[in-house]
C-alpha cells in the first residue's frame, strides 16, 4: 500500500472544501479532487479512484447518502487495488441519514466541527480499513437503534463465530481499539487483528462500524451492558 493517501472532498460549500483540503494537505494527505454535489462526487471518485472520500450528506443534485450507496455498491477500488472508503461529514450530529449511511457501508461519521487532528486520524484509519465515529454519534446511535433484549443466534451468521470471536466482537462493540483488546484478552495485537478480520469475513461486514451495528442489532451487546 502506498504511503501517499489520496482523498476526494465532497461538500456544497467551497470554503468547507478548501478548509478540509488545507488541513489534510498540511498533514501530507493529498486531496486529488473536490466536488460540490453528490453526482460530481461519484463521477470524480470513479475517475480518480481515491483512498477516501469525505462526503457531505446534504448536497444538491444528488445527496451524499445516495452517492455513498452507489459508490460503495459499485465496489470501487483505489489505484492500489484497495476498497475506496467513505467518511460522512455533516453539521448534524444525528439525523435520519446517519444510520442509513453506515448501513450503506460508510467507514465513519464525523461532525464538521471535528478538530484537525481528529479529521486526519479518521482519514488514515479509514484508508487502513478501520473506522471511526464521533463519540456522541456512537452513543445516540446505540440508544436509538439497539433494541434487542436477547441474543438472536440466527442473526446474520452470529452462530458461525467461535467463543473467542464473540468475545472480541463484544469488546469491539464497546469501543476498544486493537491495542486495548489485546491488553484485555492477554493476546498479541497481531492475533487480535486476525480475530477481527475473521469476524468481518464470517459476518460479511465491511469494517468495524458495521461490526458494532451488528453486535447491537443481534442483541449480543445491549446499551445497558
Automatic annotation (TrEMBL):
Record-linked Gene3D superfamilies: 3.40.50.2300
Alphabetized SUPFAM superfamilies for the sequence: CheY-like (SSF52172)
Modified residues (4-aspartylphosphate): 56
Domain annotation HTH luxR-type: ranges: 154-219
Transmembrane segments: none
Keywords: DNA-binding, Phosphoprotein, Transcription, Transcription regulation
PANTHER family to which the protein is assigned, alphabetical: TRANSCRIPTIONAL REGULATORY PROTEIN NARL-RELATED, TWO-COMPONENT RESPONSE REGULATOR
Protein name: Response regulator transcription factor
Organism: Luedemannella helvata
Amino acid at each position: 500500500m502506498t504511503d501517499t493517501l489520496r482523498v476526494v472532498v465532497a461538500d456544497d460549500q467551497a470554503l468547507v472544501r478548501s478548509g478540509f483540503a488545507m488541513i489534510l494537505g498540511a498533514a501530507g494527505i493529498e486531496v486529488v479532487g473536490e466536488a460540490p454535489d453528490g453526482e460530481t462526487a461519484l463521477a470524480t471518485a470513479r475517475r480518480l479512484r481515491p483512498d477516501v472520500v469525505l462526503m457531505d450528506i446534504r448536497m444538491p443534485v444528488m445527496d451524499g447518502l445516495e452517492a455513498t450507496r452507489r459508490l460503495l455498491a459499485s465496489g470501487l477500488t483505489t489505484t492500489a487495488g484497495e476498497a475506496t472508503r467513505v467518511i460522512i461529514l455533516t453539521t448534524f450530529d444525528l439525523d435520519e441519514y446517519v444510520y442509513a449511511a453506515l448501513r450503506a457501508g460508510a467507514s465513519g461519521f464525523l461532525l464538521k466541527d471535528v478538530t484537525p487532528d481528529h479529521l486526519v486520524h479518521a482519514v488514515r484509519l479509514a484508508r487502513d480499513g478501520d473506522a471511526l465515529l464521533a463519540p456522541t454519534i456512537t452513543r445516540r446511535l446505540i440508544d436509538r437503534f439497539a433494541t434487542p433484549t436477547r441474543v438472536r443466534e440466527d442473526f446474520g451468521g452470529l452462530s458461525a463465530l467461535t467463543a473467542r470471536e464473540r468475545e472480541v466482537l463484544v469488546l469491539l462493540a464497546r469501543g476498544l481499539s486493537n491495542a486495548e483488546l489485546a491488553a484485555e484478552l492477554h493476546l498479541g495485537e497481531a492475533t487480535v487483528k486476525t480475530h477481527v478480520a475473521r469476524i468481518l469475513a464470517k459476518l460479511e461486514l465491511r469494517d468495524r462500524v458495521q461490526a458494532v451495528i451488528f453486535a447491537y442489532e443481534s442483541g449480543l451487546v445491549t446499551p445497558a451492558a
